[in-house]
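Researcher: I'd like a structural prediction for the single chain below. Treat it as a standalone chain; there are no partners to consider.
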Amino acid sequence: MRDIIFIVLGVLLLYGGGEILIYSATQVALLLRVSPLVIGLTLVAFGTSAPELAATLVASFKGVGDVAFGNVIGSNIANLGLVLGLVALVRPVETTVRFVTQEVPFMLFTSGLLFLLARDGYLGRWEGLFFLFLLFLFLGFLFKRDGSVAALEPGEKKVPFRRIFYYVCGVFIGVALLAGGANVLVEGAVGIARRFGISERVIGLTLVAVGTSLPELASTLVAAYRRAGEIILGNIIGSNIMNILAILGVTPLIHPFSFSREKVILDLVIMMAFSLAAWVMLAHRKLLGRMKGALLFGGYLFYIFYLYR
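Model: Treating it as a single chain, here is the predicted structure.
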């Protein structure tokens, strides 16, 4: 009974957190007069990547580098296959020429860079510093291109800082609810799985891994319902960029870690394949429809089946 209550509570927290996060992020974009895409790529992406950062840091300090590294790779694959695929199935997602020629290629670039730097099975402080340097360059480019506050119209009043601060707090409250909901839901699901005799390995590789991607899934499903297409893509692509540049920038800077090269090389290839597939699908007609979403989601299910066959 306790586990069922946890699952129901987790779903409610995820829904509530997603609603608050998307509404608050949209209001911040309107008040600051910046593109919702920029908010999705930065504020929302940072927030929904928080569970991955916590999990990766803890894993690195415990000396389980395979879990630390695999968490980031698995989350990036889940974001494109599971999250983007399901969202497109719920509601087709439209994009722009600029997005498929700038943001998505940069995600591919960071993925390829990680592939090159992780081939030796070790991420140290120099790699972390380099990733963080690229992150600051990326953020600087975004705000230079889209993030400047528009000039006020004649007679228009300046937006009070207190009002902006209120909605920024709303973003963090939404993220906290998402993280709490994901933890409660996973705990309930793990409890039920143990009752049915499912192994710890399968629980960790499925329920826990997907659990860290639940904030992205919940927030993007809410954004799809609200028809906030720019926040959807900004969140998913931004989260993949943040997972590499921010999480794998901060974690080895604090605590360098090693991992099994043989075990992660396939996952890196799969991550690149999903990234390329998403880019091609988004570039075609600038629309990710239900058929394309089904292909991404089906590819993710096939990947999971391959892992546990």
